[in-house]
Amino acid sequence: MSKENSSKSCDGAGGRLTYKDAGVDIDAGSELIRRIAKMAPGIGGFGGLFPLGDSYLVAGTDGVGTKLKLAFETGIHETIGIDLVAMSVNDIVTSGAKPLFFLDYYATSRLNVDLAEKVIKGIVGGCQQSDCTLLGGETAEMPDFYAEGEYDLSGFAVGIVKKDSVIDGKNIVAGDVLIGLPSSGVHSNGFSLVRRVLAQSGLSLNDQLPGGSVSLGEALMAPTVIYVKQVLDLISKGCVKGIAHITGGGFTDNIPRVFPKGLGASIYKESWEVPTLFKWIQEAGRIEDAEMSRTFNMGIGMVLVVTEEASHKILEEGQHKAYRIGEVVCGEGVRYC
C-alpha cells in the first residue's frame, strides 16, 4: 500500500474522501490521549490495569459510534449489542485478561421497550460469546435529548490476568512474526467515513454490495468479531508476546502501540484477501491507501506478535483461521512490502 496520505478536501462530487473530512480527526484524538497521560501516567494501552494481589484487573470501555446511525436506518438492532461488548472485551484480552463482567448504558429520549429488548439481547449474546457475565447497567430516558426512535450505547468490561501472565509486548524483538485474525467487516470503527462514502456513491443500504452477495446494509451491519476465546486459546499455547486490537487508527496506529521503542512493523500486502466491502469503500470514496489503512481494519481485526516457532504451530494446526501478515523490524512505524 502507498504510504502517501491525502489531505485534499472532499468538497464536491468525486473528491477524495478522508476520515478527517468526514468529521473524525485521529490526530486530535491521539493528542488528547497524550495530554491525559501527563495527568494520569499509565493511560494509553488497550486496557487499564489495576493491581489486585497476584493479579491485575483489566478494564476497558467503549461505545458503538455512528454505526448506530445505520442501525436506525436499516432497522437492524439485534446485533448492535454484540458490537458494544466486542469493543471492550477485545481491548482487555490484548493484555491476556479473561473478561469477568460487563455493564452497559442505554440512553434514549423515550423508552421503547421492544426496541431496547432487541439491543440488550445482543449485549447478552456478546457476553455469552466472550464468556463473561452481564452484571448490570443503566437505562436513561432523556426527553428531547435524542431524536425520536434513536438511542445511544456505551459500556465497559472488567477482566483479570495473573501478573506473571500479562501480555505487555516488552519481550518483542525484531524478527518476531505478526499473525492476523480475520475480521467480519468494518466492525465498529470508521462509520463516519463509511456514511460519507455511501452518500457520495448514490447507492442505498438496500442495494447489493457491488461484487458481493448481500446488501450494503447487511455487509456494514455485520457484528464485530469477539476474539476472546480464540485469543485466550492461542495465549495458552505460549509464545504470544503482544496483541493489538485493530480499531480506530487501523494498522498504522494500533500495531506500534504494543512494540518497545525502536521497533516497527513490515506488513506483507498480499498475505490476506482484503474483503470486497473495503474494496468498494475505497473505490467509491476514491480513498488513498494510507487513509484506508489508518481508518479501517482492512479484514484483520486482531494482530498477535509471536515467535517464529509459534507462528508455524498456529498456522499449521489450523484450529483458528489466521494469516502470517508481517514481521517486527527495526525502525518505528508501519510499512508495507
TrEMBL record:
<dbReference type="Pfam" id="PF02769">
    <property type="entry name" value="AIRS_C"/>
</dbReference>
<dbReference type="GO" id="GO:0006189">
    <property type="term" value="P:'de novo' IMP biosynthetic process"/>
</dbReference>
<keyword id="KW-0067">ATP-binding</keyword>
<dbReference type="InterPro" id="IPR010918">
    <property type="entry name" value="PurM-like_C_dom"/>
</dbReference>
<keyword id="KW-0547">Nucleotide-binding</keyword>
<dbReference type="InterPro" id="IPR036676">
    <property type="entry name" value="PurM-like_C_sf"/>
</dbReference>
<dbReference type="InterPro" id="IPR004733">
    <property type="entry name" value="PurM_cligase"/>
</dbReference>
<keyword id="KW-0436">Ligase</keyword>
<dbReference type="InterPro" id="IPR036921">
    <property type="entry name" value="PurM-like_N_sf"/>
</dbReference>
<feature type="domain" description="PurM-like N-terminal">
    <location>
        <begin position="53"/>
        <end position="161"/>
    </location>
</feature>
<feature type="domain" description="PurM-like C-terminal">
    <location>
        <begin position="174"/>
        <end position="333"/>
    </location>
</feature>
<dbReference type="GO" id="GO:0005524">
    <property type="term" value="F:ATP binding"/>
</dbReference>
<dbReference type="GO" id="GO:0004641">
    <property type="term" value="F:phosphoribosylformylglycinamidine cyclo-ligase activity"/>
</dbReference>
<protein>
    <recommendedName>
        <fullName>phosphoribosylformylglycinamidine cyclo-ligase</fullName>
        <ecNumber>6.3.3.1</ecNumber>
    </recommendedName>
</protein>
<comment type="similarity">
    <text>Belongs to the AIR synthase family.</text>
</comment>
<dbReference type="InterPro" id="IPR016188">
    <property type="entry name" value="PurM-like_N"/>
</dbReference>
<dbReference type="Pfam" id="PF00586">
    <property type="entry name" value="AIRS"/>
</dbReference>
<comment type="pathway">
    <text>Purine metabolism; IMP biosynthesis via de novo pathway; 5-amino-1-(5-phospho-D-ribosyl)imidazole from N(2)-formyl-N(1)-(5-phospho-D-ribosyl)glycinamide: step 2/2.</text>
</comment>
